[in-house]
## 1
Amino acid sequence: MRRMLGHTRLLTLTGTGGVGKTRLAVQAGEALRGAFAHGVELVELATLEDGDLLESAVATALGLRELGPCSMTTLVDYLADRRMLLVLDNCEHLLEECALLVDRMLRGAPRLRILATSRQALGVYGEQVLYVPPLTTSDPGEAVRDIARHDAVRLFAERAARARPGFTVDAANAATVARLSQRLEGIPLAIELAAVRLRTTPVEQLLRELDEHFEAPVEGARSVLPRHRSLRATLDWSFGLCSAAEQRLWSRLSMFAGGVALEAAEAICPGAEIDKEDVVDLIAGLVDKSVLIATERDTGVYYRMLDSIRSYGREELSPAEARALGRRYVEYYRGEVERHRLDRLSPHQLEGFRALHRELPNLRVALDLCFGRTVEASVGLEIASALWVFWIIAGSLTEGRHWLDRGLRLVPEANSARAHALWVDSLLALHQGDLKTALPQLEECRILAQRLGDESALAFATQVSGIAAFSAGEPRRGLALLEEARAGHLAGGDVDAAAINRFYAAAYGAAEAPELSITLGDWFLALSDARDAQLSRGYALFALGMAAWNQGDWRRAEALMREAAELRNTLNDRWGLTQCLEVLAWTACAQGRYERAATILGTAHPLWRAMGASPTRLFPHVRGHEQCMARAHEELGGRAFAAAFRQGARLGLKRTITYAIERADGE
């Protein structure tokens, strides 16, 4: 792999399921990290089931905000001058989409190299394919020492020793272990599933059970390629060794694309042979059999399945059971989205953001179930709309619009779910600079809300119309519409919506009415502090910093932007962080530190470009950016300005934060 990646820009690892392609790719990525100036990035695609989200998923994995209307352009621009290894894991279920994406990225980013794993080649021009073979097996007639040297035997012995401490390959069992490794065809996953049985079964009996099972016809064998039959037969065998309840739970847990916590499993999986109080013991049994992998996280233990095991479990789920399970699944995650809403000022905002980010693969499954008509599509629209702040903070604007657009096509009828989805979709479009789409949607939302008597949707439609007015260069009209919307929120008793409205008015109206912005920003900050809402606090500080700058108080603006940037960096909020860096460049220029200003402008430039955005197109930033650029260029001269700008662009995100925030008080 090292040698091939030195001579090709696309290397695809192929091989049967369970052979270890992912593990090998991860190991190679770590080993090669030092060879790539901009690092190695891993994008796991096994949990992504909708090909339309591929570009968005890759952009998000790279930490990009998707503010441009085309995430592909954002990706290519970001990667254009980067020397990076991008690892795309598990491409086979999105083969056509992955091939198109890889081709575009390689054409637009000449220093990029891609390592893909897939059960079949992508078929992209210039692709080199490396087949990952099973582990080597041994002949039972070999000497014990020679048998023990083969990779399949070594893996079996290592895993067997975990299941039965003290197990070794010796003269008494070497021939049996050799036959086992042959029977399992050296496939690592099959070996691991078999080895764990040594906790309760002697190795000779284990071989007999496998022989008996493998000699029986494999269900669906005609549709299974010969090199895949060994793993399939091993999974059949492992499934057969589970109790009926464990089998049911295995198949039900296969619905969870992103792994599952015990609480979620207990809420969704009981029924038909499984009681809620039995779930914890059944999970323990599946962990013991290596069907589930337990992973410690800050919030507790999560259980996940390898992709081959999860795919097998989904095949064992009957259509009727899948529908019943799907309804419980959607209801549970609908509750989780409601519980972790980020548009409420609470002390749980950071926790809620991290929970939603962690559960995103499972939320995608829930949305797919809604829009696949397992549950009413209106429910999916409600879930996608309730995630509106998450879509923005996570930089997943394209994905948010994908789900909303899909739901709006399926829910043409006039109801509140459609009305709220329209204003959310419009807001996301505005963040991407898509005024053309946003305006007609806002008009439809306004008419629909009036027809339904939905005062909440009407207030939000007015609020987003105010933001659109700023985007169109009409700040006074924007402030008036935001004030009208705020009155509507308060009349309906929605204090949180009125609070967020004050942020928009403070941030967007800072240039037009800085004193009003300070009043509104102070109110929003006080409420954020009173409720210990850290996410909201970061935005309040930014709004106050903009107001301070527009009043000419650059010292206060700098202090506020530093604090806001630190909070936004905690969330990996690239959009918010980039805006803070932009203003920190202005404050440096105001102090006469022109080289520093040019350097920070340079640090922000690749971030703006990666997001498909520009300070010259955002109303709060246009004037400050242009003045800072002109002044620094004039004072330094063209050559010195360009050198400082290039130095900043090369810093990278981590050093950028250190330079712009930690060194703001002195060089």
## 2
Amino acid sequence: MSDGNTDTLVKPDMVAVLSRTHIGHDLHSFLLPTLEAVSNAMHGIEAHFGDDAKTKGRIEIAIANLTDPAKIMVSVTDNGIGLNEENYGSFKTPFSGYKLKTKGRGFGRFIAFKVFARIHYSSRYMAIPVEMSRTFRFDIAQEQELIFHDGDPDFAHIGLRVDYDEPLPIWHDLIKSLDAKDIADHIGSHFLPYFLYKWLPEITLQFDNEPPQSIKSHFEDVFIQAESGTIACEIDGVVESIEYSLTRVPRTRSFKNHCLLFAAADRIVGNPRDLTNTLGQPHFSNEQNEAYIIIAVVRGEVFESRLNDARTGINITPKTVEEIVSAISDVIQKTENSQIAKIKSAQSSELNEALRENPILRIGLKGRTINEYVAGKPNNWKAQDFVSNLAIERYRASKDLSKSIVTAANNPDRYMETIQEIVKKIDESNKEALAEYVVHRKKVIELIEVARKYTGDGKHAPEDTIHDLVFRRFSDTTDTDYFEHNLWLIDDALAFLPYVSSDRSMHGKGRKKGDKIPDLAFFDDSLILGDNDGTTISIVEFKKPSRDDYRFGDDKHDPVMQVINTLKSATAAGGIAKTDGSHFAFTGVVRRFAYIIADIKPSLVAVLRDHDFKNNWNPAIYFRYRDNEQMFIQVMGYDTLIENAKKRNQAFFSVLFGE
């Protein structure tokens, strides 16, 4: 008997609600209506058969004209309780209490309108003592959303069938690329929670006239729980208990990397979280060298209460997701410790090879063995990641060492004694690397000496050559690593400053008219000696070797006026733009220092005398503190620069080699 009529839904404006509901544009999103229909079918089967649902339940998914957007049709048929009066009443009432009892929201069926334009329901059900049926088109865009038909369902048993066709134009390109195996894998993985810890009825999938394939039979031998347990995670200020299940599955095109899945309402919600980075590899290999992946499923009451109405996501913060990913990754690493051991062994071998080419980086190990160091680093790191990290560690170690050397230099009477004390604290494995570094510095000094000499045409190299040796032009410490510059040539202490800009304007863009561009500019939030109430600006001005055309008061020929004006401009700018787009702002009292590096020729000496510079404590170095501008300026020759760098390096060199 057919129950033909017209009816309407007791609902809010679902068209408006749907317009505010966003889903992705991928296979999972396209299959959402199908997955929702299968889920509803399971509830109908459980209501019909109770404890026998697993053995008697049956769900048939049929897809016709798979890759043709104009003809494709998807249908889901079950042998559940059908659309009886109670279910029909719930169907007409979105967000109903009946659906909440089965972990539903009463909203899922509306998601179909994000994918298909035409949706049809047909059902047979018992209205004691007779069998009844309902067939209708469901269209929320119409005034009468339920448009009934007199025809009977195309199946003879009690149950429900949903047909979807006429996909929206935005899905046409994706439909043309659909693959039958991908669809089967996706449906199977979506209901992974049922395979792991709940019952599942027989589910078949048929494409056109091909024989139907059993999704249940295929996946119940694949999705086998290997490990389970609980983890604790703080969510919204409350420590929650979250259950997890792990399964190992063969690697395929659909299951190609380790992943974490969130489950709620007995299904997978949202997209998988790739665990490749935390586990170190996209897949593992067993003793037969067969690739497999780990799939982790997490669930808990805390997810049920935070499941969105569309059941496409769980409302938890990205930070919480990352904490769960981290905790589950730790669990997997313990259960797959032999696989992790292989990864760590490979990483250690790669790093050992890298250190053969860059032994100086062993400083960064700080006394640890390679295996000990690698054990504490991410599993996905490659040789370049370790080298980069060791460079930073080496920088810190070298910085501490350089500070000790600078401290020693401030006490000339104990300089050699202090250096010897420093070296005694360095283990033998690092002495070799440190010695190599000292040799490297020696070679750089030799390059500076060569740059000062005449070239083949009898001319001196431009000051830019020396500038690049000290610090690459048009760059800053944001894009230049510690080991790519040689600021120690000027002063070891300069390498401590957190930000250095080389031949760049304060606004960070191309040179504009009137810009005062320092060769090198150093910025620090506090003085090295610990004063922290302002910013220190130090600049370095290089002059061409052997230049002798300086004139007092001429901005183009007076290097003192140049650094004064440059420091004033830098101070007025209030900060400097870094190469990465961020900004270094000056705070508090701004202290200003300048270095002028030039050959001390007669015309330069005359200019310095006119500016009232002194050289009474060292004839080779001129200095003056200008009270009005509150800046300290120091002038030294290239020969002094080289000589001082040699002295600092040679003292350390002598101790290292026992000379």
## 3
Amino acid sequence: MKRYILLYTVLLAMVFSACQKLDLEPKGILGQPELFGNEFGVKKYFTGIYNNLPIEDFNYYGNNNPSGGNAFRPDNYWEAGKNSQGNCSGEFFNTWQGVNNGGFGYWPYDRIRDVNIFIQDFPTYKSKFSDAAYNALMGEAYFLRAFFYFGMAKRYGGVPIVKTVQNPLSPKDSLEVPRNTEYDTWKFIYTDLKFAIDNMPATSEYGRANKFVAAALMSRAMVYAGSIAKYTTYMNYGSEKAYTAGLAGIDPGKANEFFQYAVNAGKLIETGSYSLYTKNYPDKALNFANLFLDASSTENIFVKDFDQTAPHNTRLRHTYDALMAPQPDMSSFVGAESYPPFDFMELYEMPAYTNPDGTPVRFTNRSDIKIDMEPRMKGTMYFDGDLLRGKAFSIQKGIYRNYTGTAADAQRGSNGAPINSGGNRILGGRGWTTVINGVTLNITGAHGHFDDQGGENNGWGAAFVRKYVNPAPTPAEVSVYTSGTAWIVFRLGEVYLNTAEALYELGQRNEAFDYIEKLRVRAGCKVPRPAIDAATTNIGTINKANYPYQIEKSLQFIRDERERELYGENHWWWDLRRWRVADQVLNQFRPRVLSCYYVASEGKYIYLDETNRINRTWSANKACFYEPIPGGEIQKNSKLLPNNPLY
């Protein structure tokens, strides 16, 4: 059963401290007896905590120093286009954002205190609940605490483990809690989630977590911890104090412990009532697209709800639809702000665009590029000829009067290439035309790419993002804060990928590919079960440089399958970090675009692999594997030092 996070705006004044008791009880303020003494009160108390969980959704802010010291801003519609995590790591492409090495300043100990207050004081009210209800609520609190620690552990490694409620009037030294090791931090997350799983029921009220939601977080967190441990030695931070002290990095000998925890969690979820979404199974592309729009999906384990209609009335909205659909006609707002780079597109099964002799394949229609394309790719991205809000995508970059020779002769879009000079290649803006041999031709399609305009509201390649884009609203209804599509926090497809990766790392390779096969059958892949290949290969299918870091080909396939399945769901950046390859994959990474041209002399279309037109580059170094402990926190607590490596 899917579970939605409650997002009601709750105004609570909660004062739980050792301060002197006032003679007069203020009217309208809820105290512990009202909140902890009944299930409805606990629900209200938990609601504010759920609202602040580190869920990287449509409004996730992936830039340095966001206001309020929080990486999860609900107050700015622009994040989905300008500063999303996908743009920070090159997974999406636009003209603004680069990879982040500076940190978000995420330090949610105020929320952890709220949870610790409940864990400490709730036993006082145990007599008011049945044993089952009491255990479920206590388990829910442990789940919430683990979620906050997960948000910190994947950023900082080892952080202070605070399990008791600190008295702010205590001596300063007693309030300065030092960092625990990274191993202890991840093990603490495991322990909290194990308690939650053991005490929470299999089902729960709308908007609340249950044992399977806790298991889904366990599945994700433990595969993170396992890979961090296994690939710790690659970081080679030398004598960096945080590294040598175990605050950043885990003994590789602990990797299998965490991988096994991930497998166990995945196996538990399989006993629940979840299944891969196959509601529109005959049309696998539509099936995959609808997975992210269907509130009744059997695949959803936990989602964050933005629906304003009854009975949800969350009062939250986002602007994703307006920031992913292009002008004209498909959006009443600014138009598309992010696009899939070709580097990610070619991860999927797609038709050849270059012949064996190196010449471009000729297509009769622009949309022929979709023939024999993997359905999951078509469910993830919009291509020429696809319909959105009653309008067809028209995606063309320009015209060649003649095209002879190989695709390489265009030098990936260089204006200095001979084939592009002398007026042979014609570029322009929306609505521009040219006359060739007495025939008036449109230079571009209605949806880019336009040589006369910047990146905003302008196609950068042969595709637009389809995942999570809701086609139901009319263009007039698509604007700021009008989107109510839920964000899927945990789904079975991700759990299968977590389980497959953990099994493979444990040496159980055939079983690992059982899970990969399930996803590829649902995706409509031509090869649902690739052969296991233990030969080594350079890491990073995205960036094909010759790196010293090598892994087995089948493990790279599982990593690539993860990106094919989870593209645009805010996983890739964290995956690159936990695999310890971000500094290599994003080593002067220049996203490529697949560009469509009309060859006037032939009446055919060709697609060329080109560099993005502003030669945008992403780059990361080994500092990116950890974020720095926030400077303001260090000023308050010097025991947080040493800071993470390279800061």
